[in-house]
Amino acid sequence: MSILWVFIILNFFAGDIHELGRPGMLEQMMSGTIDGGVVAEMLMTRQRRSRH
C-alpha cells in the first residue's frame, strides 16, 4: 500500500514540474489565479488553524 502512495506523490510532483514548463504558468501561480480559477493563500501556505 505504501508503494501506491509513493507512486501517487511522484505523479503529483511530475505534474507540477510539467506545468511549470507551460508559458505563463509561473506568473499565474505567483498571481494566485490559474486558468481563471482563484487559488486561496491558505492552500499555498498550508497553514493550520489553532484549535481552542
How is this structure best summarized?
With 52 residues, this protein is mainly α. Helix content is 60%, strand content 8%.
Textual characterization of the structure:
- With 52 residues, the chain is mainly α.
- It has one domain.
- It contains three helices and two strands; from the N terminus they run ααββα.
- A two-stranded antiparallel ribbon has the order 1-2.
Give a count of the beta strands, DSSP E runs of length 2 or more: 2
Q: For the largest beta sheet, what order do the strands appear in spatially?
A: 1-2
Helix-residue proportion: 55-70%
As for the number of domains, it is 1
Largest β sheet strand count, sense and barrel closure: 2 strands, antiparallel
Strand content: 5-15%
Query: Uncertain spans, ≥5 residues at pLDDT below 50?
Result: none
Q: Specify the overall morphology.
A: flat
**Separate helix tally:** 3
Structural class: mainly alpha
Please name the defining characteristics of this protein:
2 strands, flat, single chain, two-stranded antiparallel ribbon, mainly alpha, 60% helix, 52 residues
